[in-house]
Amino acid sequence: MEQVEVKLENEKPVIQVDRIALGKDESQKLENWLLQVESVFNGLVKVSKSDLVNFFIQNHSLELSKKELKQIKAMYHSEVKFAKWALNKLMEAEKTGEELSLSDLIKLQNAKLKLSDKITPLIADVPAKSKRGRKRKVVTEDSSLEPEV
Asked: How distant is the alpha carbon of residue 107 from its chain centre?
């Protein structure tokens, strides 16, 4: 998590921990909530987008509900992503000499996606990989490469 300290004029420093990107619909919903707060309190109470998002996060329980997890699964679970994850796990097991089969991974996935009373995230088994940026192509003007006339 990246932490950046920002100090505005005549204000105490604020530490920014994370930045997120909102979709168009989510951003519009947030704007509507801000307008609602402003109109209900006649401008007496002013909150920023960050204040409002932080308010919702602070007032949510520490764990997601079963219903929320089912909605997330419905929106984001992909057989293609599972297949890539399974292939990576099988290749890692082969390198280390472990015995692991595709059926073992399918059983593991099914057990974790059933949303039992104790919910264990599927991601816990996947090591975090750091993303590397693309190398940029550098274009230079070199007169020696131009054809002679």
From this structure: 26
